[in-house]
Amino acid sequence: MGKLDGKVAVITGATSGMALAGAKLFVAEGAHVFISGRRQDAVDDAVAQIGRNVTGVQGDSANLADLDRLFETIRREKGSIDVLWASAGGGEQAKLGEITEEHFDAGFALNARGTLFTVQKALPLFNDGGSILMTGSNASLRGYPDWSVYAASKAVLPAYARVWVAELRDRKIRVNVLTPGSVATPMMRDALGPELTAQFESVIPRREMGRPEEIATAALFLASNDSSYVNGHELVVDGGATVI
Predict the structure, then answer these.
(1) Is residue 193 pLDDT above 80, yes or no?
(2) Which residues are known catalytic residues?
(3) Hey, is 29 helix, strand or coil?
(4) Rounded to an integer, what distance in angstroms lies between the CA atom of residue 73 and that of residue 33?
(5) Which residue(s) pair with 55 in the sheet?
(6) How much is the average pLDDT of 111-123?
(7) 170-179 pLDDT, tens per residue?
(8) Which of 21, 37, 73, 105 has the highest CB neighbour count under 10 A?
(9) Cα angle value 21/22/26 (rounded, 5°)
(10) Quick check: helix, strand or coil at residue 234?
């Protein structure tokens, strides 16, 4: 018996990395998973990798019309949601003095605005007793140079969770934040390059980035009844980088 048997889960930004690993694990644990991503070819590839009990919907989580299309597809095909992992996000480096309006608006549009409206648009389909988790970043807990906009756009997520716990308590819907540290995803490797990768790994006690599968198991914990008494929590999964 799987930990998500019979559940309907939604994972945004699930065409690669941590969220794709999570989608594979959720399906292995019995869920039907809806995934989204910006590029149709990437969505198709992720669906093929997952292999079964998965529906892919192309869409940008910063685009409200795309979110409407995602949740209309879920309403039509399954009718309800038990688990939402709002994982779509991203960011680029820019140091203070060089930050542009476009850089700021793009970061907050996806990470802060997109996450909020993903959750809000999912709520009419949510079953009572379900679980919502959002992907944060330990960049909001450490002072990584050049990442202020990204860090700030992720720092809003625990604030969302604290408020939404209160607002959703009558429906017994839990809201938590999964906050990874440096994880060896294709996006991370492309963004950092070898030199910066070595710098990031130097602050991790084991001197090695996390693996997407390690984040996926933490997501499964928050999605399943294993975390039934965990609510409004920021679960930091960064190998100890923020405590030393």
Answers:
(1) no
(2) 150
(3) coil
(4) 12
(5) 34
(6) 98
(7) 999 999 999 9
(8) 37
(9) 125
(10) strand
Query: Rounded distance, CA 232 to CA 133, Å?
Result: 10
The pLDDT confidence band at residue 68, using thresholds 50, 70 and 90, is: very high
CA–CA distance from 125 to each of 80, 82, 120, 183, 224 (Å)?
Answer: 5, 9, 10, 32, 18
Helices 115-122/148-167 angle, 10° precision: 20
Please state, in angstroms and rounded to a whole number, the distance separating the CA atoms of residues 212 and 24.
11
Query: Within 13 A of 42's CA, how many CA atoms are on the CB side?
Result: 17
* Length in residues, the chain: 244
- For 196-236, the pLDDT digits (tens) are 788 888 889 999 999 999 999 999 999 999 999 999 999 99
To which H or E segment does residue 80 belong?
none
**Cα 190 from Cα 187, distance rounded (Å):** 5
Please provide the distance, in angstroms rounded to a whole number, between the alpha carbons at the two ends of the chain: 39
